[in-house]
Design a protein that fits this description.
Radius of gyration: 25 Å
Distance between the termini: 77 Å
CATH class of the largest domain: Alpha Beta
InterPro entries: HTH_LacI, LacI/GalR-like_sensor, Lambda_DNA-bd_dom_sf, Peripla_BP_I
GO molecular function: DNA-binding transcription factor activity; transcription cis-regulatory region binding
Low-confidence stretches: 54-62
Helix content: 40-55%
Mean pLDDT: 87
CATH architecture of the largest domain: 3-Layer(aba) Sandwich
Strand order of the largest sheet: 2-1-3-4-5-11
Number of domains: 3
Largest sheet: 6 strands, parallel
Protein name: LacI family transcriptional regulator
Order of helices and strands: HHHEHEHEHEEHEHEHEHEHEHHEE
Strand content: 15-25%
Organism: Paenibacillus flagellatus
CATH superfamily of the largest domain: Response regulator
Keywords: DNA-binding, Repressor, Transcription, Transcription regulation
């Protein structure tokens, strides 16, 4: 075959040494007697030739592959740790998990989409930044259920549901925590490249200020708009006369940069500035001063995600096998589960002596 001609059922039948009717029966999962060897030969031939129907059987009665896909924007920080926990959870439920990263590259996304469609995974777990609207529509149209995590955009409408970390409430809690520690002005150091994830943090920051009631000086700055070495001067200028100032950062890495630049330029932490991050990365505990942050319950988020997907697929037997005897109480299809983050207090936000 040339690389420009799409494979047909006739090509698959010839490669597998079976009839076209048998190919159709295998690929359409028809309830007819088929040996495992025949199924294997047809599926291997289809994979070798790159054959795939545009619309595969979407019925819950179709034969399972017992494989899920996990699509991430990258592998650093939270993404890698979440992927690790998802793999553990998949194993516990008797599934294989194929993990992919788009690296926010449309060409990589396109290739991965084709690969996922070819593999006919039973379902896809997808971060809200990892796939475009068109790709999601194509996956759903092909019969693949998608469960999003950390998604706050219109893509949610196409999913069976969404499992989101409640970073909005974490930022509300961060503002209230910093005020309780004596802060008289508040600042957010963000990362708008994270799109809706950053917007959730900003919204929580604003809500925290509203709940304080009084008028406190505040401002927001994005990492893309200021060089790290200039951040201390920016914070010092705006908070002068309203010390100590509280700084809530997009994540622990932004908090680490902020805290170290402040200390490097002679601004004491936590006396002059109090810092709060999010994610409870390794650096948060082992930096000096130790960084106040919010812990992410990876195991809980992963287990809720799998329970929701398996419930949607009608795989209650898998839930019972793992020991989940209680019925899974989940929102209506297309709904959202919010996973709370727990404040971890460390020296970076301690009260002044």
């Amino acid at each position: 075959m040339t690389e420009h001609r799409q494979a047909t059922v006739f090509d698959v039948a010839k490669e597998a040494g079976v009839s076209t009717a048998t190919v159709s029966n295998v690929l359409n999962r028809r309830n007819v007697p088929l040996t495992e060897e025949t199924i294997r030969k047809v599926e291997e031939a289809a994979a070798k030739l790159g054959y795939r129907r545009n619309v595969m059987a979407a019925s819950l009665s179709r034969r399972r592959t017992y494989e899920f896909g996990l699509l991430l924007p990258g592998f650093g920080g939270y993404y890698g740790l979440f992927a690790q926990q998802m793999e553990r959870t998949a194993h516990a439920y008797g599934y294989h998990l194929s993990v992919f990263s788009t690296d926010l590259d449309s060409q990589i996304e396109k290739r991965l989409l084709e690969k996922l469609l070819e593999r006919r995974v039973d379902g896809l777990f997808c971060h809200g930044l990892a796939m475009s609207h068109d790709s999601v529509r194509r996956m759903v149209g092909d019969g693949t259920p998608i469960l999003f995590f950390n998604c706050w955009n219109e893509l949610k409408e196409l999913a069976i549901g969404t499992v989101n970390l409640n970073v909005y409430q974490a930022c509300v809690d961060a503002v209230l925590h910093l005020r309780a520690q004596g802060c008289r002005s508040f600042y957010y150091y963000g990362h708008r490249r994270a799109h809706a994830t950053d917007e959730q943090r900003k919204a929580g920051f604003r809500e925290g200020l509203r709940l304080l009631g009084d008028t406190y000086p505040f401002d927001m700055i994005d990492a893309g708009d200021i060089a790290p070495e200039k951040l201390p001067g920016w914070l010092a200028e705006r908070s002068e006369g309203t010390e100590p100032a509280g700084v809530i950062c997009f994540d622990d890495w932004k908090a680490f940069v902020c805290m170290n630049r402040l200390i490097e330029q002679g601004y004491p932490v936590p006396d002059r500035f109090k810092i709060v991050g999010i994610n409870n990365e390794f650096i948060a505990e082992h930096s000096y001063p130790g960084m106040t942050t919010f812990n992410i319950p990876y195991e809980h988020q992963a287990d809720i995600s799998f329970r929701w997907m398996l419930t949607h697929l009608g795989e209650q037997a898998k839930l019972k096998t793992k020991g989940d005897a209680q019925p899974v109480r989940l929102p209506e299809p297309g709904g959202e589960v919010k996973i709370p983050l727990a404040l971890v207090e460390r020296l970076s936000s301690a009260k002044r002596n």
